[in-house]
From TrEMBL:
<dbReference type="GO" id="GO:0004096">
    <property type="term" value="F:catalase activity"/>
</dbReference>
<feature type="binding site" description="axial binding residue">
    <location>
        <position position="338"/>
    </location>
    <ligand>
        <name>heme</name>
    </ligand>
</feature>
<dbReference type="InterPro" id="IPR024708">
    <property type="entry name" value="Catalase_AS"/>
</dbReference>
<feature type="active site">
    <location>
        <position position="128"/>
    </location>
</feature>
<keyword id="KW-0408">Iron</keyword>
<keyword id="KW-0560">Oxidoreductase</keyword>
<dbReference type="InterPro" id="IPR011614">
    <property type="entry name" value="Catalase_core"/>
</dbReference>
<dbReference type="Pfam" id="PF00199">
    <property type="entry name" value="Catalase"/>
</dbReference>
<dbReference type="InterPro" id="IPR020835">
    <property type="entry name" value="Catalase_sf"/>
</dbReference>
<dbReference type="GO" id="GO:0005737">
    <property type="term" value="C:cytoplasm"/>
</dbReference>
<dbReference type="InterPro" id="IPR018028">
    <property type="entry name" value="Catalase"/>
</dbReference>
<feature type="active site">
    <location>
        <position position="55"/>
    </location>
</feature>
<dbReference type="Pfam" id="PF06628">
    <property type="entry name" value="Catalase-rel"/>
</dbReference>
<dbReference type="GO" id="GO:0020037">
    <property type="term" value="F:heme binding"/>
</dbReference>
<keyword id="KW-0349">Heme</keyword>
<feature type="domain" description="Catalase core">
    <location>
        <begin position="8"/>
        <end position="391"/>
    </location>
</feature>
<comment type="similarity">
    <text>Belongs to the catalase family.</text>
</comment>
Length: 498
């Protein structure tokens, strides 16, 4: 027989009565010492977090992605490396414009965000049920979303706002056409397709880059409803899509999607008739056919909606080796805005929540912040460091730079520079007394460091000026090997030996 669970406070103190407040007599006022009541009320006041500005109303479920065709010729991402390989996923569906209380069956674009918990870290594909969007420049994003929300005076959805913006931005016509077609009213989340929408990049093990678009084709068949059916459904059930998804999974009718990609080479991108990174355009399937790479199935409902769906955090900036961004302007802005929104909405350590945690080991030097679990312990919180047990860079994952006209976007090594001449010149203009005072001050601070650190730092002083190094070494009471002094005349990096 299992042990009875005793009710406690959040700090573990057993509670013997959770139904009656402490009062001064049976009819008396409450007492401030009733800390159980205070804890309950204070927690209740903070139960809600800011809702998402966009995609506020959503549903989610866990599942698996299974590779049906490996594509190592296009990407080195390990989770796509072999047929049959499975990766756990979490998928959140949503409406875009509506608040959290909006009806599921309203005419709206639907969000389609997938978190892949891969062995090389999480990968988030944050897309919609449409392959395009209303804008191609992120400068217009906040303004567009304002038109889909409420009028600042009436607090009502406003046709003038919406159509004023759309009519002044003809780039929106493709998405507007989709929105007001049958596709704008999917019968359920299970019966609609999903798209990555943005162009992403693939990089293979040979360092070759390809451009790609992701498509999720529903295996339940596309099913839409009419405007009249939508209005009737909303009157009956405002949570129709949430109910349908949850109950289907509970019944064992696991919804699934065939995952496909379109591939474009770098050379093809240069001659494509439209900008291949324009979010308002699709790539014609005839020219860039869909290639099946896997099956995504949802087979497990969350246990706690708030913890696992409301606090689920997605960002287009979450990549794995072999998959990366493109020059799509809207995507580039989302790389910043999405993780920033999650840190505001949930907190700086949102990635430590179970639904957002990677399923692989995580090592970094980010520390502290609200709700930190103490990641990193007592290990150094800076890099580079000389502790051999701490995480180090992995140069084998380096990917090629991206050519942008006459320049290449890459991580250029700023360490291969002359760091000694100017420091040496400054030392040489000091007076004798100032040199001695400087050496003494440095030695006073450096003496508290380990000897191996002292020796490494002495190397830098010697490379700047021999006299500089000798004076600091003398102030530290360190005798330097004379042979080192001769070798260092040529300014070659050499280890210092006492």
């Amino acid at each position: 027989m299992s042990e009875d669970k005793k009710l406690t406070t959040a700090t573990g103190c057993p509670i013997f009565d959770n139904q009656n407040s402490i009062t001064a007599g049976p009819r008396g006022p409450l007492l401030m010492q009733d800390v159980q009541l205070l804890e309950q009320m204070q927690q209740f006041n903070r139960e809600r977090i800011p809702e998402r500005v966009v995609h506020a109303k959503g549903s989610g479920a866990y599942g698996t992605f299974t590779v049906t065709r490996a594509i190592p010729e296009y990407t080195k991402a390990k989770f796509l490396s072999e047929v049959g390989k499975q990766t756990e996923v979490f998928l959140r569906f949503s409406t875009v414009a509506g608040e959290r209380g909006a009806a599921d069956a309203e005419r709206d674009v639907r969000g389609f965000a997938v978190k892949f918990y891969t062995e090389e870290g999480n990968w988030d594909l944050v897309g919609n049920n449409t392959p395009v969007f209303f804008i191609r420049d992120p400068y217009k994003f906040a303004n567009f979303i304002h038109t889909q929300k409420r009028h600042p005076q009436t607090n009502l959805r406003d046709a003038n706002m919406q159509w004023d913006f759309w009519s002044l931005n003809p780039e929106s016509l493709h998405q507007v056409t989709i929105l007001f077609s049958d596709r704008g009213l999917p019968a359920s989340y299970r019966h609609m397709n999903g798209y990555g929408s943005h162009t992403l990049s693939f990089v293979n093990a040979a360092g070759e880059r390809f451009w790609c678009k992701f498509h999720f084709k529903t295996r339940q068949g596309v099913k839409n409803i009419t405007g009249e059916e939508s209005a009737n459904l909303i009157g009956i059930d405002r949570e129709s899509h949430q109910r349908d998804l949850f109950q289907a999974i509970e019944r064992g009718e696991y919804p699934s999607w065939t995952v496909k990609v379109q591939i474009m080479t770098d050379e093809q991108a240069k001659t494509f008739k439209w900008n291949p990174f324009d979010l308002t355009k699709v790539w014609p399937h005839k020219e860039y056919p869909l290639m099946e790479i896997g099956i995504l199935e949802l087979n497990r409902n969350p246990v706690n909606y708030f913890a696992e769906v409301e606090q689920a955090a997605f960002s287009p900036s979450v990549f794995v080796p072999g998959i990366g961004p493109s020059p799509d302007k809207v995507l580039q802005a989302r790389l910043m805005s999405y993780p920033d929104a999650q840190r505001y909405r949930i907190g700086t350590n949102y990635q430590q929540l179970p639904v957002n945690q990677p399923r692989c080991p995580v090592y970094h030097y980010q520390r502290d912040g609200a709700l930190s679990t103490g990641y990193g312990g007592s290990s150094p919180n800076y890099y580079p460091n000389s502790d051999s047990s701490t995480p180090k860079e992995a140069p084998e994952y380096r990917e090629p730079g991206l050519a942008l006209g006459d320049v290449v976007a890459d991580r250029y090594d700023s360490r291969d520079q002359d760091d000694y001449t100017q420091a040496g010149n400054l030392w040489r203009i000091f007076s004798e007394d100032e040199k001695n005072r400087t050496a003494k001050a440095i030695a006073g601070a450096l003496s508290g460091a380990r000897q191996d650190i002292q020796m490494r730092q002495l190397c830098h002083f010697f490379r700047a000026d021999m006299d500089y190094g000798q004076r600091v070494a003398k102030a530290l009471n360190i005798d330097i090997d004379p042979s080192f002094l001769q070798q260092n005349q040529q300014n070659n990096p050499q280890p210092v030996t006492a």
